[in-house]
Design brief:
Putative phosphodiesterase; 8 helices; 6-stranded mixed sheet; phosphatase activity; Ap4A_hydrolase; 34% helix; Calcineurin-like_PHP_lpxH; globular; Metallo-depent_PP-like; alpha/beta
Length: 246
Protein backbone atom coordinates (compact mmCIF):
# COMPACT_ATOMS: atom_id res chain seq x y z
CA UNK A 1 0.00 0.00 0.00
CA UNK A 2 1.33 3.43 -0.98
CA UNK A 3 0.16 6.52 0.88
CA UNK A 4 0.79 10.13 -0.16
CA UNK A 5 1.10 12.22 3.00
CA UNK A 6 0.64 15.99 2.73
CA UNK A 7 1.03 18.43 5.59
CA UNK A 8 1.18 22.17 6.23
CA UNK A 9 -0.41 23.38 3.01
CA UNK A 10 -0.87 26.83 4.57
CA UNK A 11 -3.20 28.28 1.96
CA UNK A 12 -0.55 28.02 -0.76
CA UNK A 13 -2.48 27.33 -3.93
CA UNK A 14 0.50 27.13 -6.26
CA UNK A 15 2.28 24.58 -4.06
CA UNK A 16 -0.83 22.47 -3.52
CA UNK A 17 -1.68 22.37 -7.22
CA UNK A 18 1.87 21.33 -8.11
CA UNK A 19 1.93 18.60 -5.45
CA UNK A 20 -1.47 17.20 -6.40
CA UNK A 21 -0.38 16.98 -10.03
CA UNK A 22 2.52 14.75 -8.96
CA UNK A 23 0.30 12.77 -6.59
CA UNK A 24 -2.15 12.11 -9.41
CA UNK A 25 0.68 10.71 -11.54
CA UNK A 26 1.84 8.49 -8.67
CA UNK A 27 -1.70 7.15 -8.15
CA UNK A 28 -1.24 6.15 -4.48
CA UNK A 29 -3.74 3.91 -2.73
CA UNK A 30 -4.49 6.56 -0.11
CA UNK A 31 -4.00 10.27 0.55
CA UNK A 32 -3.59 11.59 4.09
CA UNK A 33 -3.49 15.31 4.95
CA UNK A 34 -1.92 16.17 8.30
CA UNK A 35 -3.49 19.56 8.92
CA UNK A 36 -2.64 23.24 8.73
CA UNK A 37 -4.61 23.73 5.57
CA UNK A 38 -4.73 27.47 6.23
CA UNK A 39 -2.61 30.18 7.83
CA UNK A 40 0.30 32.21 6.42
CA UNK A 41 -0.80 31.91 2.79
CA UNK A 42 -3.13 33.88 0.49
CA UNK A 43 -5.58 31.21 -0.70
CA UNK A 44 -7.38 29.64 2.27
CA UNK A 45 -10.64 29.11 0.36
CA UNK A 46 -8.90 27.12 -2.35
CA UNK A 47 -6.97 25.00 0.15
CA UNK A 48 -10.06 24.15 2.19
CA UNK A 49 -12.27 23.40 -0.78
CA UNK A 50 -9.60 21.27 -2.45
CA UNK A 51 -8.93 19.20 0.66
CA UNK A 52 -12.66 18.86 1.33
CA UNK A 53 -13.02 17.33 -2.15
CA UNK A 54 -10.13 14.97 -1.43
CA UNK A 55 -11.81 13.87 1.79
CA UNK A 56 -15.10 13.30 0.00
CA UNK A 57 -13.15 11.03 -2.37
CA UNK A 58 -11.70 9.00 0.52
CA UNK A 59 -8.69 10.95 1.80
CA UNK A 60 -8.05 11.27 5.53
CA UNK A 61 -7.43 14.66 7.14
CA UNK A 62 -6.64 15.80 10.68
CA UNK A 63 -6.77 19.21 12.34
CA UNK A 64 -3.74 21.51 12.56
CA UNK A 65 -3.12 24.35 14.99
CA UNK A 66 -3.73 27.03 12.34
CA UNK A 67 -6.96 25.28 11.37
CA UNK A 68 -8.02 25.34 15.02
CA UNK A 69 -7.19 29.05 15.23
CA UNK A 70 -9.12 29.79 12.04
CA UNK A 71 -12.30 28.13 13.30
CA UNK A 72 -12.12 29.70 16.78
CA UNK A 73 -10.99 32.87 18.53
CA UNK A 74 -7.80 31.32 19.88
CA UNK A 75 -4.59 33.09 18.91
CA UNK A 76 -1.76 31.04 20.38
CA UNK A 77 0.43 32.03 17.45
CA UNK A 78 3.41 34.22 16.60
CA UNK A 79 2.60 37.83 15.60
CA UNK A 80 2.95 37.18 11.85
CA UNK A 81 0.89 34.01 12.10
CA UNK A 82 -1.74 35.79 14.21
CA UNK A 83 -2.07 38.58 11.65
CA UNK A 84 -2.50 36.02 8.86
CA UNK A 85 -5.05 33.91 10.72
CA UNK A 86 -7.17 36.95 11.60
CA UNK A 87 -7.23 37.83 7.90
CA UNK A 88 -8.01 34.19 7.08
CA UNK A 89 -11.10 34.22 9.31
CA UNK A 90 -12.56 37.02 7.19
CA UNK A 91 -12.31 34.77 4.12
CA UNK A 92 -14.10 31.72 5.49
CA UNK A 93 -17.76 30.96 4.88
CA UNK A 94 -20.02 28.57 6.77
CA UNK A 95 -19.06 25.61 4.59
CA UNK A 96 -15.38 26.20 5.29
CA UNK A 97 -16.00 26.41 9.03
CA UNK A 98 -18.23 23.34 8.96
CA UNK A 99 -15.51 21.33 7.22
CA UNK A 100 -12.89 22.43 9.76
CA UNK A 101 -15.27 21.40 12.55
CA UNK A 102 -15.29 17.82 11.24
CA UNK A 103 -11.52 17.36 11.48
CA UNK A 104 -10.23 15.20 14.36
CA UNK A 105 -6.95 15.74 16.19
CA UNK A 106 -5.79 12.24 15.36
CA UNK A 107 -6.69 9.23 13.22
CA UNK A 108 -5.42 5.67 13.59
CA UNK A 109 -5.54 3.67 10.38
CA UNK A 110 -3.31 1.32 8.38
CA UNK A 111 -1.14 0.54 11.41
CA UNK A 112 -0.23 4.21 11.77
CA UNK A 113 -1.31 7.13 13.92
CA UNK A 114 -1.83 10.29 11.86
CA UNK A 115 -1.59 13.56 13.78
CA UNK A 116 -0.57 17.12 12.99
CA UNK A 117 1.90 17.79 15.80
CA UNK A 118 2.51 14.86 18.17
CA UNK A 119 0.71 11.84 19.57
CA UNK A 120 1.75 13.24 22.96
CA UNK A 121 -0.95 15.74 23.97
CA UNK A 122 -1.94 16.49 20.37
CA UNK A 123 -4.04 19.44 21.48
CA UNK A 124 -0.89 21.14 22.83
CA UNK A 125 0.74 21.28 19.38
CA UNK A 126 4.19 20.14 20.52
CA UNK A 127 6.97 19.93 17.93
CA UNK A 128 8.61 16.57 17.23
CA UNK A 129 11.95 18.15 16.41
CA UNK A 130 14.40 16.13 18.52
CA UNK A 131 14.80 12.61 19.95
CA UNK A 132 13.28 13.57 23.31
CA UNK A 133 10.10 14.85 21.66
CA UNK A 134 10.01 11.73 19.48
CA UNK A 135 10.28 9.58 22.61
CA UNK A 136 7.29 11.34 24.18
CA UNK A 137 5.36 10.97 20.95
CA UNK A 138 6.05 7.24 20.75
CA UNK A 139 5.26 6.67 24.42
CA UNK A 140 1.81 8.20 23.90
CA UNK A 141 0.87 5.78 21.12
CA UNK A 142 0.65 2.02 20.71
CA UNK A 143 1.11 2.16 16.94
CA UNK A 144 4.39 1.08 15.33
CA UNK A 145 4.35 4.14 13.08
CA UNK A 146 3.35 7.76 13.73
CA UNK A 147 3.18 10.35 10.95
CA UNK A 148 3.07 14.04 11.79
CA UNK A 149 3.90 17.46 10.38
CA UNK A 150 4.07 20.83 12.16
CA UNK A 151 7.86 21.36 12.10
CA UNK A 152 7.95 21.94 8.31
CA UNK A 153 11.19 19.91 8.21
CA UNK A 154 11.27 16.32 6.86
CA UNK A 155 12.70 13.92 9.45
CA UNK A 156 12.53 10.25 10.40
CA UNK A 157 13.04 9.00 13.96
CA UNK A 158 14.01 5.35 14.45
CA UNK A 159 13.21 3.81 17.82
CA UNK A 160 14.58 0.45 18.94
CA UNK A 161 13.02 -0.93 22.13
CA UNK A 162 14.51 0.56 25.29
CA UNK A 163 16.75 2.93 23.36
CA UNK A 164 16.68 6.65 22.67
CA UNK A 165 15.26 7.35 19.19
CA UNK A 166 17.73 8.14 16.44
CA UNK A 167 17.05 11.25 14.37
CA UNK A 168 17.63 10.97 10.61
CA UNK A 169 17.18 13.63 7.93
CA UNK A 170 16.39 11.74 4.72
CA UNK A 171 17.67 12.88 1.36
CA UNK A 172 15.09 14.16 -1.06
CA UNK A 173 13.74 11.65 -3.57
CA UNK A 174 15.63 8.72 -1.99
CA UNK A 175 13.66 6.07 -0.12
CA UNK A 176 14.51 5.81 3.57
CA UNK A 177 13.95 2.30 4.96
CA UNK A 178 11.62 1.58 7.85
CA UNK A 179 13.45 -1.00 9.94
CA UNK A 180 12.18 -4.28 11.32
CA UNK A 181 11.79 -4.43 15.11
CA UNK A 182 11.73 -0.62 15.22
CA UNK A 183 9.02 1.95 15.72
CA UNK A 184 9.15 5.12 13.68
CA UNK A 185 8.03 8.73 13.73
CA UNK A 186 7.90 10.29 10.28
CA UNK A 187 7.77 14.09 10.09
CA UNK A 188 6.67 14.81 6.57
CA UNK A 189 7.87 18.32 5.78
CA UNK A 190 5.59 21.03 4.37
CA UNK A 191 3.70 21.46 1.13
CA UNK A 192 3.11 25.18 1.53
CA UNK A 193 5.95 26.57 3.64
CA UNK A 194 9.12 24.41 3.75
CA UNK A 195 11.67 25.41 6.38
CA UNK A 196 14.60 23.10 5.64
CA UNK A 197 16.37 25.44 3.23
CA UNK A 198 14.73 24.01 0.12
CA UNK A 199 11.82 26.13 -1.15
CA UNK A 200 10.32 23.28 -3.20
CA UNK A 201 7.07 21.87 -1.82
CA UNK A 202 7.54 18.67 0.16
CA UNK A 203 5.33 15.66 0.74
CA UNK A 204 6.00 12.08 1.80
CA UNK A 205 5.31 8.89 -0.12
CA UNK A 206 4.94 6.05 2.36
CA UNK A 207 5.19 2.51 1.00
CA UNK A 208 3.96 0.04 3.60
CA UNK A 209 4.77 -3.04 1.52
CA UNK A 210 8.32 -1.92 0.76
CA UNK A 211 8.67 -0.50 4.31
CA UNK A 212 10.07 2.83 3.14
CA UNK A 213 9.30 6.52 3.01
CA UNK A 214 10.43 8.97 0.34
CA UNK A 215 10.39 12.73 0.73
CA UNK A 216 9.24 14.05 -2.62
CA UNK A 217 10.08 17.62 -3.66
CA UNK A 218 8.00 19.58 -6.14
CA UNK A 219 9.13 22.98 -7.49
CA UNK A 220 6.35 25.54 -7.84
CA UNK A 221 5.92 29.25 -8.56
CA UNK A 222 6.74 30.55 -5.09
CA UNK A 223 7.23 34.06 -6.49
CA UNK A 224 3.57 34.15 -7.51
CA UNK A 225 2.49 33.12 -4.01
CA UNK A 226 4.81 35.69 -2.42
CA UNK A 227 3.41 38.40 -4.71
CA UNK A 228 -0.13 37.57 -3.57
CA UNK A 229 0.93 37.82 0.08
CA UNK A 230 2.45 41.25 -0.57
CA UNK A 231 -0.62 42.45 -2.47
CA UNK A 232 -2.85 41.46 0.45
CA UNK A 233 -0.77 43.52 2.86
CA UNK A 234 0.35 40.58 4.98
CA UNK A 235 3.84 40.46 6.44
CA UNK A 236 6.52 40.50 3.73
CA UNK A 237 8.41 37.85 5.70
CA UNK A 238 5.65 35.36 4.93
CA UNK A 239 6.40 35.78 1.24
CA UNK A 240 10.17 35.94 1.58
CA UNK A 241 10.41 32.70 3.50
CA UNK A 242 8.68 30.89 0.63
CA UNK A 243 11.48 32.01 -1.68
CA UNK A 244 14.28 30.82 0.62
CA UNK A 245 12.64 27.81 2.25
CA UNK A 246 13.07 29.06 5.81
Amino acid sequence: MRIAVLSDIHANREALEAVLEVVEELAPDQIVVLGDLVGYGPDPEFALETVARLVSDGALCVLGNHDEAARSDRDRLTPNAREAIRWTRTRLNEDHRAFLATLPLSITRFGCQWVHASAYRPESWDYVADPEAAMRCLAASTEPLICCGHTHRPTVFYSHPNRRPTMFVPRDEIAAPLLARHRHVIVTGAVGQPRDGNPAACFALLDLEEASVTMRRVPYDSEATAAKIKMLGLSSWLGLRLLIGR
